[in-house]
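Figure 6 in text form: structure in, sequence out.
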């Protein structure tokens, strides 16, 4: 009986250690996983090194990191950085709020037209306006700017938006929420691109 108790305790300890490491991997293991992912990622060269686009946990710093990562990726393809404009920052935040309020991860949350947030902030040129957006969400580390940009680079449609030579302006927004679509501690991202003539 005592040996069964020892076995049960050992199994419980191993399971607890495994669960702890899964949620809090040591730095050497995270670095090894990051290297393995980068080796398998055909767009890893388009993602700025961590030292170039440093982030922090507050929303304004995360948004600056996102702009840095987007401009870095564009530069790898000979494209100029995009000017950050208030209207697209505001439109991005309105879209993030609509996504969360409607509980619907969509470019048209609650059935509103895609153009609704662009129109709401008056993003228009004298003769023509063209725009596009990328959206993403992730819980915990999956919502970080680097992970989100890596995901966009590995998605043909999102990469096409990000690397289009058409754009001259951009705006980004991150909306941290406690819960979204059943996940906790979520970051909802919207990145918008545009040109006004």
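Output sequence:
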């Amino acid at each position: 009986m005592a040996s069964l108790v020892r076995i049960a305790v050992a199994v419980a300890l191993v399971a607890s250690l495994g669960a702890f490491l899964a949620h809090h991997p040591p730095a050497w293991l995270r670095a090894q996983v990051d290297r393995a992912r980068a080796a398998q990622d055909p767009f890893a060269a388009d993602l700025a090194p961590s030292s170039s686009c440093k982030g922090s946990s507050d929303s304004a710093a995360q948004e600056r990191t996102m702009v840095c990562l987007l401009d870095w990726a564009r530069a790898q393809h000979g494209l100029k950085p995009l000017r950050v404009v208030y209207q697209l920052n505001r439109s991005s935040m309105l879209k993030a709020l609509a996504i969360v309020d409607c509980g619907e991860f969509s470019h048209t949350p609650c059935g509103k037209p895609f153009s609704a947030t662009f129109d709401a902030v008056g993003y228009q040129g004298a003769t023509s306006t063209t725009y596009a957006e990328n959206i993403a969400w992730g819980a915990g580390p999956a919502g970080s700017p680097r992970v989100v940009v890596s995901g966009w680079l590995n998605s043909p449609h999102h990469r096409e938006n990000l690397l289009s030579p058409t754009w001259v302006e951009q705006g980004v927004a991150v909306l941290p929420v406690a819960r979204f679509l059943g996940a906790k501690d979520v970051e909802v991202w919207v990145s918008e691109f545009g040109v006004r003539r």
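Caption detail: The radius of gyration is 20 Å.
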